[in-house]
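Fold this: YCII-related domain-containing protein
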Amino acid sequence: MQFVMLVRVDPTATPTPDESDPNAWVDVHVPRLGKRLEGNGLRDVETATTVRVRDGRTVVADGPFAEYKEIVAGYDLIEAESIDRAVEIAALHPVARFGSIEVREVWPF
């Protein structure tokens, strides 16, 4: 099964580089419990563009549509045998200690 992990952080959080470094998670924890297919950070939320279509018109806005307490800072696409195993992997992610990890099963078309 594939899962997307949305890495969410409070923009006011100030973890040290060691606290937020995912290398040990990628190299040690994920291979033990599943498989990481892809993962990246995202640029600052100020660089976002929001696209909506309303009444046949495309509406484009700079930045996110609403204010959020947490922003999506990155993502990981993983394979795991179950949601429980995916949650176990997410709990080991360094950002889970000062942010949150949203885990969602991929729903193929």
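The helical segments are 17-20, 23-33, 83-91. The mean pLDDT is 91.
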